[in-house]
Task: inverse folding
């Protein structure tokens, strides 16, 4: 379990990083926290010719919070985001979801942007990026561009980014007014990748009736998706809504796979249960914020 | 400071060293050694058609490549059948490097030696092996069906048919008021020590001697195997087990191919060579255990008393049988547990499959045995509408029945005779500890919280401390330091502490002065190994005997000096003194100096023993029959095994929406005779319970039908974290063994044995569906719950049906 030979560069600026990536071509890979990439290297499932370590690049380690949302720099570790109170106030899903990412030791090194760039449908933060209608900012030799989550995720462990590119930040939109969120997952062991996870956003109208319900799931499907469950509960008063109807709807919308730890049917079951459970608490939060 | 430490919860002396990273494990040794890596079979069953090393030859740093063709003499022969047995009629073992065929994924084919491990792996990756794939046999059912053979010359895939019976079971079943027949399965798991296997070899070309460090549970036997295979005289081979990061059984298997190949390469290359197993190698090239299919027929009367038991087991032994039929024998003989069964017959077919070999993993056939017996008890209770505890109680061997002859032959070839125990006592304590009589209230309380609660129990008797022997050497130095050596190895059990406690107590010295060495053939060349909960029983007693020998000699010498009778002397805190006469004393270290008559005074203390100091010149300096030095070597060889026992109970809560299973309480009553160190015993129990929970709910070697292991990493092979292991409440019972001087029985494996049985019982109690296959995961429980054909327990009939989402 030793990686194949590779070259290593640790550029001190973004331009330098892009220059190395350009020069090295398709064989080069960005190294951030290394928590996904290094195991792949050690198992020789990946053998990039060059690793471009961005950890020395300045200016990528901040969390910026505005009324619009939260922008997370490429070197912000999961644990830093988890503990960022200002970010949590603007978009509570960030802390709720990162708390479910792996174990503390991995969260101390792994970056939130790295997990999005890694595009693992079993990752929490890909799903949260989708649910918050987020995007990433990408630096390329031709300048910076913004890529929305729908365009970013192409397949499992596959993004639309090609050629020399460094994701410099991810932007998660703020929680809309009169809304609440919740996140829950079932994992075989604490800290494991979820067998199934669910993040939801409930938005109420001015009469505290359900106006919109959106959900996104973890480890369900090949890329993150956002499902609109509004129809199942629209117009229902927040205390009287039958969340199980939304759960039942969700079960018809998803197309999970089977693996060693869960059958597709079991995942579908969990989609229903977790939807129902998270909606109840998200709705309570929405009601609190609407008050 | 007291020296009477036997039975005290002394804190483990080795922990500080191990916890702060000062342990010296295999991979910490020899940083400049060349590194070995292996090309291993990617196929479960194939003919090796060609090995093309050409592509590797220009890798810079490559030192050597070895294939079967490079093996000579005994190395070219198959690996030994370590434990032959007359019923092992078709033993098969592999070669150190594959010869013509491979029989499981992971089997070594080529060894590459290079300047470091990275380069060795680079070179290994470029070696092209051409295979002709053959059909794979995976799982006991496929093996039994025998549509394909794992070994051409064993067409039925059966390596051994093990058979024992205590009477005529068929008429006894026919005459039974009730009979019940059922089939159940248990899956493969593995030892999974934190540290894998590993070998470092140093060849001293001038001395023509070999020093091998290996992460083993049996250094003396590895030494003998290396000497035999490499055609060296035993005195030219030293084998040392350094700190070993867990074994749990997998390291009692030996000699591993790497334990022979790495020394061979060191000799061949005249350089130090090291190989340190990585995790993937451990999954596919070491050993697993536990898969069995069990067909059980039991006869019983209206009260639930057993009249006859007939068990047929198919035991998956993997691709080879180097460890013989030890696990089948243990399953066969330990199955009866604490119960008095009038007639018992057991037949175990040990079958070949194209998977990693099966050798003992903590418990070694006992968890399966316990699962068979205890699930039988649960079924009888369900059929008769009786409390599961009551059925067990009615079948327990009573205290008056000891020694209890089970009329079976154990893994050591000796009769299964339970030496002592109090099984009703265990049951009474367990019921108290877990609150058995309050289970219905617990269930109601959980129901109110939307959870399904169940309780389960399981009892076991564990044969521990099998022979043939262990030895101990105790020596007091002139500095006062007491050196203790025993040949068996340590891999986390706390021997440095418990053996020191025994010596401190026997000899009357402070534990700080005692230094324990294990598993080093330079210090103690005769030993068997660490397995089967035998270290405390075997080496503990041998060391105690050795310490008593030292004490006797010390008193004899001190008696001379103090002009007293040895009977009037005592040793306390490292000082020999006349009882009741303070001041009339001599330090033990001075006795040690005097024990060795000297010509040369190499230090201040030695002066006391030189020839011009006072002495009795009517006697020779060393009396006939005596020996210089204050030391003694002794051995303990038992007549037969001791039998420890225990009872566990689990309380589980199940979420009826997600079918997640949570063990909320786990109770253990444990009897291992006299306890050397209760803290260490509890630690052993805790670790065992964690592995029991793992085996019941998480761990499973997921082979596909092609013999590919689907979960050969810690990401997908789920061992429980601390967060998955319940708090364990423990109660001790101490029934000393009459068989050995210290009255102790083993405690190493006990914790793991009843886990699967107790947790299966608890889940069945919670959900009211028969559990016939373990381990069980939430997704499988969901499948069971929505299967209309799943058998419902009679006990659950009275309860409200729980809603199952389809
Ligand atoms: C035991 C374990 C358990 C885990 N459990 C979970 C879990 O439950 N949930 C979860 O979501 N994750 C889990 N992870 C993964 C963890 O979250 C990783 O930190 C994360 O997936 C990747 O972040 P990283 O910074 O480590 O990226 P790296 O490993 O450095 O890189 C991952 C990939 O993304 C690319 N990349 C990284 N940063 C950039 C960038 N700025 N621009 C362009 N490309 C980039 C790399 O080239 C590489 O292809 C687990 C990891 C381990 C080892």
Result:
């Amino acid at each position: 379990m030793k990686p194949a030979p590779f070259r290593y560069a640790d550029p001190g600026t973004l331009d330098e990083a892009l220059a190395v990536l350009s020069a090295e071509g398709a064989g080069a890979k960005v190294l951030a926290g290394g928590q996904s990439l290094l195991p792949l290297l050690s198992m020789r499932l990946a053998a990039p010719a060059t690793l471009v370590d961005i950890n020395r690049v300045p200016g990528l380690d901040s969390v910026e919070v505005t009324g619009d949302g939260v922008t997370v720099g490429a070197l912000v570790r999961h644990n830093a985001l988890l503990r960022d109170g200002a970010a949590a106030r603007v978009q509570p899903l960030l802390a709720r979801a990162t708390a479910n990412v792996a174990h503390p030791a991995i969260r101390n090194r792994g970056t939130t942007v790295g997990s999005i760039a890694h595009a693992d449908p079993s990752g929490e933060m890909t799903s949260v990026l989708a649910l918050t209608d987020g995007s990433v900012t990408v630096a390329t030799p031709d300048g910076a561009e913004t890529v929305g989550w729908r365009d970013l995720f192409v397949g499992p462990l596959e993004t639309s980014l090609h050629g020399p590119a460094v994701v410099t930040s991810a932007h998660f939109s703020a929680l809309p007014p009169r809304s609440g969120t919740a996140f829950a997952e079932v994992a075989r062991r604490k800290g494991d990748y979820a067998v199934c996870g669910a993040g939801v956003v409930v938005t109420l109208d001015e009469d505290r009736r359900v106006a919109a319900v959106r959900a996104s799931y973890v480890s369900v499907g090949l890329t993150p998706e956002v499902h609109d469950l509004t129809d199942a509960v629209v117009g229902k008063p927040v205390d009287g809504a039958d969340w199980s109807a939304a759960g039942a709807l969700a079960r018809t919308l998803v197309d999970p796979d089977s693996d060693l730890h869960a059958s597709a049917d079991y995942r579908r079951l969990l989609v229903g249960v977790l939807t129902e459970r998270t909606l109840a608490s998200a709705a309570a939060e929405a009601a609190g914020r609407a008050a | 400071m007291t020296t009477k430490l036997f039975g005290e919860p002394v804190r483990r002396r080795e922990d500080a060293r191990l916890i702060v990273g000062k342990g010296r494990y295999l991979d910490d040794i020899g940083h400049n050694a060349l590194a070995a890596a292996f090309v291993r079979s990617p196929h479960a069953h194939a003919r090796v058609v060609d090995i093309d090393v050409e592509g590797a030859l220009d890798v810079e740093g490559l030192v050597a490549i070895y294939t079967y063709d490079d093996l000579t003499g005994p190395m070219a022969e198959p690996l030994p059948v370590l434990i032959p047995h007359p019923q092992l009629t078709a033993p098969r073992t592999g070669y150190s490097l594959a010869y013509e065929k491979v029989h499981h994924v992971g089997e070594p084919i080529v060894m590459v030696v290079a300047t470091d491990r990275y380069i060795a792996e680079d070179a290994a990756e470029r070696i092209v092996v051409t295979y002709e794939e053959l059909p794979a046999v995976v799982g006991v059912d496929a093996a039994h069906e025998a549509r394909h053979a794992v070994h051409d010359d064993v067409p039925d895939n059966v390596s051994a048919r093990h058979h024992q019976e205590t009477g005529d079971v068929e008429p006894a079943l026919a005459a039974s008021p009730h009979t019940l027949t059922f089939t159940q399965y248990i899956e493969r798991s593995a030892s999974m020590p934190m540290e894998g296997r590993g070998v470092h070899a140093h060849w001293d070309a001038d001395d023509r001697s070999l020093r091998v460090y290996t992460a083993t549970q049996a250094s003396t036997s590895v030494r003998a195997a290396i000497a035999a295979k490499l055609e060296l005289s035993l005195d030219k081979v030293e084998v040392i087990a350094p700190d070993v990061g867990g074994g749990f059984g997998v390291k009692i298997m030996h000699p591993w191919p790497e334990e022979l190949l790495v020394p061979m390469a060191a000799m061949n290359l005249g350089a130090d060579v090291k190989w340190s197993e990585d995790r993937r190698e451990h999954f596919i090239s070491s050993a697993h255990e536990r898969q069995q299919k069990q067909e059980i027929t039991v006869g019983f009367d209206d009260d639930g008393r057993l009249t006859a038991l007939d068990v047929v087991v198919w035991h998956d032994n993997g691709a080879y049988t180097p460890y013989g039929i030890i696990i089948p024998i243990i399953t066969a003989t330990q199955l009866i547990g604490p119960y008095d069964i009038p007639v018992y017959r057991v037949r175990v077919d040990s079958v070949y499959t194209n998977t990693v070999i099966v050798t003992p993993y903590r418990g070694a056939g006992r968890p399966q045995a316990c699962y068979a017996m205890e699930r039988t008890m649960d079924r009888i209770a369900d059929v008769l509408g009786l409390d599961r505890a009551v059925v067990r109680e009615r079948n327990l061997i009573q205290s008056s029945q000891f020694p209890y002859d089970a009329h079976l032959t154990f893994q050591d070839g000796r009769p299964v005779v339970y030496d002592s125990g109090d099984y009703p006592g265990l049951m009474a304590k367990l019921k108290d500890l877990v609150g058995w009589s309050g289970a219905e209230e617990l269930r109601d309380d959980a129901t109110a919280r939307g959870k399904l609660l169940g309780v389960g129990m399981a009892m076991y008797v564990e044969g521990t401390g099998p022979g043939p022997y262990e030895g101990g050497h105790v020596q007091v130095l002139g500095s006062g330091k007491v050196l203790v050596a025993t040949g068996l190895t340590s891999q986390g059990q706390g021997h440095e502490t418990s053996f020191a406690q025994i010596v401190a107590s026997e000899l009357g010295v402070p534990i700080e002065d005692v230094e324990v060495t294990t598993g080093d053939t330079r210090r103690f060349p005769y030993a068997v190994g660490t397995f089967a909960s035998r270290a405390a029983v075997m080496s503990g007693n041998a060391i105690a005997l050795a310490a008593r020998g030292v004490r006797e000699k010390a008193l004899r010498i001190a008696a001379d000096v103090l002009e007293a009778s040895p009977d009037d002397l005592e040793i306390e805190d490292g000082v020999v003194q006349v009882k009741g006469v303070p001041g009339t004393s001599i330090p033990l270290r001075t006795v040690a100096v005097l024990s060795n008559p000297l010509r040369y005074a190499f230090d201040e203390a030695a002066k006391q023993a030189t020839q011009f100091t006072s002495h009795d010149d009517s006697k020779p300096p060393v009396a006939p029959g005596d020996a210089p030095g204050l030391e003694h070597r002794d051995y303990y060889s038992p007549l037969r095994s001791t039998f420890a026992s225990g009872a566990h109970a689990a309380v589980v809560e199940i979420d009826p929406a997600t079918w997640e299973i949570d063990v909320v309480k786990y109770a253990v009553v444990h009897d291992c005779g006299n306890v050397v160190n209760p803290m260490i015993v509890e630690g052993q129990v805790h670790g065992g319970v964690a592995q029991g929970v793992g085996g019941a709910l998480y761990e499973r070697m997921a082979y596909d039908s092609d013999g590919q292991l689907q979960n050969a990493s810690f990401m997908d092979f789920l061992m429980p974290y601390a967060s998955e292991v319940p708090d364990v409440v423990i109660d001790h019972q101490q029934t000393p063994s009459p068989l050995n001087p210290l009255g102790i029985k083993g405690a190493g494996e006990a914790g793991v044995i009843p886990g699967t049985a107790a947790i299966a019982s608890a889940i069945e109690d919670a959900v009211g569906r028969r559990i016939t296959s373990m381990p069980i995961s939430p997704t499988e429980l969901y499948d069971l719950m929505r299967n209309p054909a799943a058998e419902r327990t009679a006990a659950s009939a009275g309860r409200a049906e729980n809603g199952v989402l389809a």
